[in-house]
Each structure stands twice: as structure tokens, then as C-alpha cells.
Amino acid sequence: GDIVVTTYQRQGVVTSLKQLSDIDGGFLYLVKPFDPLILQRLETAQENLTAYRLAEDRSSQTKMVFVLAYLQIVTLVLILSVRLAQSAAMRISEPITERALAAQRVTSGEEGVRVVTACTGDEVEDLSNSFNVMTETLDERRQALVGAREESDERRVFVETLLSEMNAGVIRLDTGGFITLANKSAETLLG
Fold first, then answer.
1. How many Cβ atoms are within 10 Å of 32's Cβ, its own excluded?
2. Phi, psi of 183 (to 5 degrees)
3. Distance in angstroms (rounded) separating the CA atoms of residues 62 and 73
4. Maximum distance among all alpha carbons in the chain?
5. Which residues contact 124 (CB under 8 A, 6 or more apart)?
6. What gap in Å lies between CA 71 and CA 78, rounded to an integer?
7. CA distance linking residue 126 with residue 90, whole number of Å
8. If DSSP codes are grouped into helix, strand and coil, which group holds residue 108?
9. pLDDT tens per residue across span 112-138
10. Is the pTM of this model over 0.85?
11. Is 80 exceeded by the pLDDT of residue 171?
12. What's the CA gap between 171 and 181, in Å, rounded?
């Protein structure tokens, strides 16, 4: 059956032994001389092949580590990008929301509405300044209108009182000739 190979490196000989099946109790014994340097080179090649396979395995592991590190860095950059975007959006949306709420207060009739003006040097600061000037102007005009209305009401009451106390009949006509105002004496006279 089997072939038994033995290497004698120092002597530079390789032997092999095989039992012969055709000859009962017979063996074939071969001796082959070789250059010991070749065997040493073969062993070196085998060691180098083993080292290469080990390095290849380590290379795969190193590649996996780099891929995982890359994915972690990409994930971190994405998270930071989202956070920065949220921060920028809040810096813009919060002042706009504050101004919108202030505008609703003005619409509901509240007087003296002002917004805080931050010295940011951007459009939000310009919007805040414009809003405050607008509400100040609205408050001044509202006060002027209220004052004019009160004065008009006082004049109307004065004229009505004066007309009611007069004995002479007084009427007021519009441009179409229709009576718009008449005191009691005029109503009595006109029937």
C-alpha cells in the first residue's frame, strides 16, 4: 500500500519505501540524493506562503476595521450636519415666529407691541426695526384717530344740544336735497 518517505536533510538523501503487492514479502526501497539547499528553499517558500496567507487574513481584518471606521465617521458627519441645520433653522424660524405672534397681537388691537431687536446685522434685525417703526406709527395714528373721533363726538353733542335749545327751526340737507338733520322746532314746523 502506502509509500513511506523519509528525508535525511544533513546527508542530502530522500528515501521511500513501498510494499510490493505482486511479490510476497517484497518491498521497493528507493534512495535519491538531493541538494540540501533546495529543501531549505522549499521550506522558506512554505514559510513565506504561510506568512502571506496570515498577512492576507490580517489585511481583510484591517480593511474591515477601515470600513467600520469610515462608516462611523460618515454617520458622525451626518449627525453633525443635521444638528447644524436644525440650529440654523431655529435661528431663523424663532425670530420669524416671534414677529408673526407680535403681528397677531397688533391685529387683535393691542397697542404698544414691540419686538426685541438683536444686533445681528441681518434681515431679521431689519425686519425687527421695520416692525417696531410700523407699530409705533400705527399707535400714533390710532391715537390721532381716537382723538379726532372724540373731538368730533364732542362737536356733534354740542351742535345737537345747541340745536335742541334753539326756538328757530334748523334743518340740514345733503347734496341731493334730502334732510339729514332737523331740530325739534323744524320737525314741529314741517310736521
1. 10
2. -85, 175
3. 16
4. 168
5. 92, 95, 96, 118
6. 10
7. 18
8. coil
9. 888 888 777 778 888 888 989 999 999
10. no
11. yes
12. 5
- Give the three-class secondary structure for 116: coil
Contact 99, 118 (CB under 8 A): no
Q: How far is CA 64 from the centre of its chain?
A: 31
Consecutive H or E run containing 166: none
Instruction: Report CA 80 to chain centroid distance, whole Å.
Output: 9
The Cα–Cα gap between 159 and 163 comes to: 6
Secondary structure percentages of the chain, helix, strand, coil, to 5: 65, 15, 20
CA 76 – CA 33 distance, rounded (Å):
66
Query: Which grid coordinates are listed for 28?
Result: 521497493
Please, are residues 43 and 36 in contact by the beta-carbon 8 Å criterion?
no
What distances in angstroms separate CA 123 from CA 5, 90, 127, 128, 156, one per listed residue? Answer: 92, 15, 6, 8, 48
Quote the pLDDT of residue 1.
Answer: 64
Rounded Cα–Cα distance for residues 116 and 138 (Å): 18
